[in-house]
Every structure is written in structure tokens, then in C-alpha cells.
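User: Hand in any protein.

Assistant:
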Amino acid sequence: MPPIDPVSGGIRLTLHIQPRASTTEVAGIHGDALKLRIASPPVDGAANDEIVRFLAEQLGVPRRQVTIISGATGRRKTVAIAGVDRDAASRALGLGPAPG
């Protein structure tokens, strides 16, 4: 499964999260997931809030269009993002053109 899947009305991202990093950034691919380093600690939802904020900002969509659909308490998360296509997301996250 690729880290960016097109779905009806948007995309679905598979993420591997590294909390407590010095800065929030995309750190490349980790197995079949997109690795994100998150500056927030995984306490009281702070890391999830930072993930939503960061992805919305990077992809140019409102935060309400970014939804964590699974893995809210783990390092591996699935996130749905409405209103963006796979190619635009791939470029915005610094991955270059989407493969295939």
C-alpha cells in the first residue's frame, strides 16, 4: 500500500510518526508509510493536533478537511484529507511526482 492513496474527494495518507522531534517535518518514506517528525509530545492529543495543523498548512487546505481516521493513539496513523489530489499532495510534501 503506497503512503498516498487517492480516494473519493481527496486522499488517504499512511503515516509513521516520530514525536518530540526538534521541528515538524516530512522525513521521507518509512516502509509503506510517510514518516513525519513532530515537534509536539504524544500527550493529551498534542501530537495529533500538530499533525492536522502541519498537513493542512502543507497541503493548503483548512484543518477541518484533515481527519485522523485510525491510529489516534499510536505511531502509525491513517489520515484522510479532502479537497486535494495525489499528485498535488506528493509535490507539497516534498516527495516529487506521485509514482504510477
Q: What stands out?
A: The first helix runs from residue 46 to 59.
